[in-house]
Write a structure and sequence with these properties.
140 residues; seven-stranded mixed sheet; 5 helices; alpha+beta
């Protein structure tokens, strides 16, 4: 699997991945801060990492093509975590409006938080503590 930024491709290439689901493609920031995940040079998933501050990013969206393994959302989150580390940040926010996402982030060691990068009317905010601990352990 390879990850590539979507800010370097054309809008037509970006929109082609989503087909009729144009909601995400209307937001130019999704393309600016987005990434495609490629399998054999074919895009199979998309996620966006919005900068919150110098230490934090928000995994604002993740989308995968039909037919991907049930464990693939975990893979997407782990790929996002790796990019966050590469950027020198140590926190990743995820917003959950579904029990499925809540269960997933709980299993990955995320902690529910009241600190949020933006206001949302519903759902719960989660923050990675594992990334913070990884950074902490490197300094000890």
């Amino acid at each position: 699997m390879q990850v590539a930024a979507t800010n370097k491709i054309t809008m037509e290439q970006f929109q082609a991945f989503f087909g009729q689901e144009i909601g995400l493609t209307d937001d130019i920031q999704m393309k600016q801060f987005g990434y495609f995940v490629y399998d054999n040079k074919v895009p199979v998933a998309f996620f966006s990492l919005f900068p919150v501050d110098k230490n934090s990013y928000w995994l604002r969206a993740f989308v995968m093509k039909q037919g991907m393994p049930l464990t693939f959302p975990m893979t997407l989150i782990q790929l996002a975590e790796e990019l966050v580390k590469e950027y020198g940040a140590n926190q990743l926010f995820i917003h959950s409006k579904s029990q499925l996402v809540t269960d997933l982030v709980s299993q990955l060691g995320y902690t529910q938080t009241d600190r949020a990068p933006t206001n949302m009317e519903s759902g719960q905010w989660w923050i990675s503590i594992r990334l913070h601990h990884d950074e902490f352990s490197k300094t000890c």
